[in-house]
Amino acid sequence: MRDLSRPRLLAAFLGLCAVGAVGRAVVDAGALVPLLGLVALALTVTVRAYKPDDPPRRAWIWLACAAWLAVVGETVSASFGPGLSTWLMALSNAMWCASLLDARRKILAGALVPPLARPWRWALVAAVLVGLAVAVEVASTLPHGSPVYPTVTGARLYHLGFVELCDAVVLVAGVWLLGALHPLWGGAAARPFLLVTAAAGIFAVSDLIPLFVGLPLPRLWTRALIIGGWSLLGVAGLAQLELRRAMFARTADLRASLQALGPRP
Fold this sequence. Notes:
- Keywords: Membrane, Transmembrane, Transmembrane helix.
- The chain crosses the membrane at residues 33-50, 59-78, 84-101, 122-142, 162-181, 193-214, 220-241.
- The protein is mainly alpha-helical.
- The protein has helices at 6-26, 33-48, 57-80, 82-110, 118-144, 154-181, 191-213, 219-261.
- It starts with 5 loop residues before the first helix and ends with a helix.
């Protein structure tokens, strides 16, 4: 299969990061709306490249819906405050979890997937340990409040815990999915989901650093991690779209070759 164009994907990542950075620098409220809108559009185009009966389509539908919900949540937050938007963002995170869990279920149901190789088993163990660390942190902060974020209380505290748990689930499910996908098609099919998992890893890191340091991240770092994570998710959609087009091109070349041979006598 034709290799994915890394320079184009890198250019797309840098472009999305630039949009997010300019939005943060210029706009006070709703700064992420332009970036999230571009990510949602990229994921929607990826969905439309699939036929309704293609197995991977539903996973990308979940991701596209998650991005559009984030757009709505950021817009609502800028217009009316963080009340309703926090739950919209929580639902967006839940859809992200559903995407990877559904993708892994479809992969295991539709292909002969070998057992996880040893490096992927170790990677899965590491991801599970990260997820457990996040779960322990959430369980310890919900009853008494977060020492890192003492002003976060009530419903906002539960929202923060839910989002952190979703990030952990996405990280574990993503590594598990990558281990199943990597042996297939020379690893090319795993690359878009590698980017999705990397995005989840960025958000998980933003959850864990305050836990181990005992202090909230500086605002600039937090913004950079958020922009980088969403930009990676948009690039993942573009990578999947390019992979899909490469598969179509290969199929078309094979069909043309067979037609050129003509019918056998």
